[in-house]
Design goal:
Structural class of chain B: alpha/beta
Number of strands of chain A: 0
Strand content of chain A: under 5%
Largest sheet of chain B: 6 strands, mixed
Structural class of chain A: mainly alpha
Helix content of chain A: over 70%
Order of helices and strands of chain A: HHHHHHHHHH
Oligomer: heterodimer
Distance between the termini of chain B: 19 Å
Strand order of the largest sheet of chain B: 6-7-8-3-9-10
CATH architecture of the largest domain in chain B: 3-Layer(aba) Sandwich
Number of helices of chain A: 10
Radius of gyration of chain A: 21 Å
CATH superfamily of the largest domain in chain B: P-loop containing nucleotide triphosphate hydrolases
Number of helices of chain B: 11
Largest interface: A-B, 21 and 26 residues
Bound molecules: adenosine-5'-triphosphate, magnesium ion
Shape of chain A: globular
Distance between the termini of chain A: 55 Å
CATH class of the largest domain in chain B: Alpha Beta
């Protein structure tokens, strides 16, 4: 603990870097998955191609991707961009599948009745399909958020500032307390992101809670009357 | 008035759902398409609001070919109610009812005020306005669906088995409500069902369909009951099994002025008033031990529709 107080600035600085660098892939993954997920849900061919591509990309080891990207992007080897781009690729790979599932989870009846009452294709997408895909989208986004936060630590191996530095430094100095603090702060960041996502989800999708509450009330009344 | 002119629909997979269908659906009347599953009822209905485009032939509303304008504008001018209501699960009841006015750019306050009035119209408590559809019973959801269908005050209301998924008592309620609404609002209603009793109850014009939307018979319920055009129709309306042909039951001893009626199979179908042993309109005494007089059920009910 003493070490933490002595190095609070370092730890908080690394935490800030960690937050800053992991937000980008999460946001990019979310935005990019929407058109791709829509395509994958709409056309079988697109679905096969996109999901296969996603699977292949996700199976590339992160370290390998970090060190190959400079050659592909023309960035310097220590550039943050390498890690951010690599994490964006993983985020998109996971989210495209999630988004395809999310859009296909929207009830056909609701879509066709929306068309029947006169939604144009564009307004139907944004005001019906997208929000109704929300719960499943959110579920994948939570997975992406946690995996991005933890994968980012690997980036420290190629010199990008993040909480991963504490693992490497602690390991090299054979100093477990530093490693432990690295883990604790990574978990805090992951939990923080997850909590924010869940809260935003509740705020934006109040109907999902209404349904759950009703089920609960129904089963409660059922057990009372039983 | 809605007119089908030699309309054919062949789906891309080759299914011939509707073949050379021609019919006039009169304004301000209820036309019911009735037939067994897969005979093309939904396809016919969805061609009216261009959810499905005919492969050949044309459809006119009040003399204008529906293919000439925008499909979205057409749909916004026609009410549509389907089974399982098709409500938006993420919108509260009031916003569901106001969906189309809001799409058309009506101010939210005005759309909501009108939506509240529509809840009254369809017999729903205003207290339900701020619930989500999942918090309503099936019957209540159907009423919201009807309210939404009425929200743009359309001349035409399309209803695809709207009461197919609710229990018989609620269905009775909803049917009566629809009859009342139709009496007050005078819409051109196109109603799809596979329940012949529902068709006879609600329809001014009943269209009995066979596979490929081939018309087996068109007419008022009375005409069809009195004169089934074919064995298919007779069997579809249950006339061949004697279900529609009622007789005074001879085994029950009469008390009071009611006599019990049974159908051809001997099942109890109801009672009829026969003051002093005389059936109204029959002009002759009814003896409880003879089957002197038979009465078709449903016709009088349907006649009120
Ligand atoms: N999109 C489609 N692609 C191919 N075939 C279709 C399509 N929609 C309907 N069909 C076929 O067209 C025929 C008529 O279907 P339709 O939905 O109009 O029947 P329906 O009379 O409404 O039946 P139900 O009472 O079961 O609702 C059926 O054989 C059906 O399988
Ligand atoms: Mg149908």
């Amino acid at each position: 603990m003493l070490w933490l107080w002595d190095n609070l600035d370092l730890v908080l600085g690394l935490t800030a870097d960690h937050v800053r660098l992991s937000i980008i892939p999460i946001v990019v993954g979310f935005i990019v998955c929407i058109p791709f997920g829509w395509l994958a849900n709409r056309y079988t061919v697109a679905r096969t191609i996109l999901l296969t591509l996603g699977g292949v990309l996700f199976s590339i080891p992160s370290l390998a991707l970090f060190v190959t990207l400079p050659a592909l992007l023309g960035t310097r080897i220590l550039d943050e961009a390498n890690v951010v781009v690599a994490l964006c690729i993983y985020a998109i790979a996971v989210m495209v599948r999630g988004a395809a599932d999310a859009f296909s989870s929207v009830s056909r009846d609701v879509i066709s009745s929306s068309t029947a009452v006169g939604f144009s294709a564009v307004s139907r997408f944004w005001t019906v399909e997208f929000p109704l895909a929300g719960p499943v989208l959110l579920a994948s986004l939570r997975v992406v958020s946690v995996s991005t936060v933890s994968l980012l630590s690997v980036g420290s191996l190629i010199g990008v500032q993040s909480l991963g530095y504490l693992f490497i430094n602690g390991y090299q100095r054979d100093f477990p307390e530093e490693i432990l603090i690295g883990i604790v702060f990574t978990v805090i960041v992951a939990v923080l992101f997850d909590t924010i996502l869940v809260l935003v989800g509740r705020l934006l999708m109040p109907w999902t809670r209404a349904t759950r509450r009703r089920r609960w009330v129904t089963s409660a009344t059922a057990s009372v009357s039983a | 008035m809605i007119e089908f002119h030699s309309v054919t629909k062949r789906f891309p997979d080759g299914t011939l759902a509707v073949e050379d269908f021609s019919l006039v659906l009169p304004s301000r009347k209820t036309t019911v398409f009735v037939g067994s599953s897969g005979c093309g009822k939904t396809t016919l209905l969805r061609m009216i609001n261009r959810m499905i485009d005919p492969s050949s032939g044309s459809i006119e509303i009040d003399g204008v070919d529906i293919a000439s304008g925008s499909a979205v504008a057409l749909r916004r001018s026609i009410g549509y109610v389907m089974q399982n209501s098709g409500l938006l699960p993420h919108r509260r009841v009031i916003d569901n009812v106001a969906t189309v006015p809001l799409l058309k750019g009506v101010k939210k306050v005005d759309a909501h005020t009108q939506a509240m009035e529509l809840l009254d119209t369809v017999g729903l408590d205003r207290a339900l306005a701020y619930r989500y559809p999942s918090q309503l019973s099936g019957g209540q959801q159907q009423r919201v669906g009807v309210a939404r269908g009425l929200a743009v005050n359309p001349n035409i209301l399309l209803m695809d088995e709207p009461f197919g998924a609710v229990d018989p008592i609620v269905r009775d309620d909803l049917q009566q409500e629809l009859l009342r609404l139709q009496h007050d609002l005078d819409k051109t209603v196109v109603f799809v069902t596979h329940d012949i009793d529902e068709a006879f109850l609600l329809g001014d014009q009943v269209v009995i369909l066979e596979k490929g939307a081939q018309i087996a018979q068109v007419g008022t319920p009375k005409e069809i009951l009195a004169n089934p055009a074919s064995d298919f129709v007779a069997s579809f309306i249950g006339a061949d099994r004697g279900k529609r042909r009622l007789a005074v039951d001879s085994t029950v001893s009469r008390s009071g002025d009611d006599v019990v009626l049974v159908d051809g199979a001997g099942y109890v179908a109801g009672v009829i008033e026969a003051p002093g042993g005389v059936l109204p309109g029959a002009g002759a005494g009814v003896s409880t031990n003879s089957r002197a007089r038979s009465v078709s059920n449903k016709t009088d009910q349907a006649g009120d529709a």
